[in-house]
Specification:
Layout: H1 2-41, H2 50-53, H3 55-58, H4 60-77, H5 81-102
Helix pairs in contact: 1-4, 1-5, 4-5
Length: 106
């Protein structure tokens, strides 16, 4: 009986981790799209951060975005659900900032 309970708990945990990984991955895709939109917007503010945009043909900032996504995915896949929430908050802030920049409200 106790063994069945443990296996059931493992399945629930695996399902929760899988869902969290999928959510973080989808948020990462959205973050990359928002990031690309900002880079292509030609906003004057982009000229103020050349140290992040010049290396790798102007795509170093996308590398930073990838490293953040990879770190969040690794932590969430290890079972740390707090990282999924942290990445969600980051994505919300990132989305609002991208919207402000692309619509030239900032």
């Amino acid at each position: 009986m106790e063994g069945d309970w443990h296996r059931g708990t493992s399945r629930v945990r695996l399902r929760d981790v899988t869902i969290a990984v999928l959510v973080v991955f989808c948020l990462g895709v959205i973050n990359f799209a928002a990031h690309k939109a900002v880079l292509e917007s030609g906003h004057p503010m982009l000229a103020q951060v050349p140290w992040l945009l010049k290396p790798l043909g102007g795509r170093a900032s996308l590398l930073v975005e990838f490293v953040m996504l990879l770190g969040a995915l690794l932590m969430v896949s290890a079972g740390s659900q707090g990282w999924a929430l942290l990445y969600l908050v980051y994505s919300l802030v990132n989305g609002v900032a991208a919207w402000l920049i692309v619509t030239e409200r900032l």
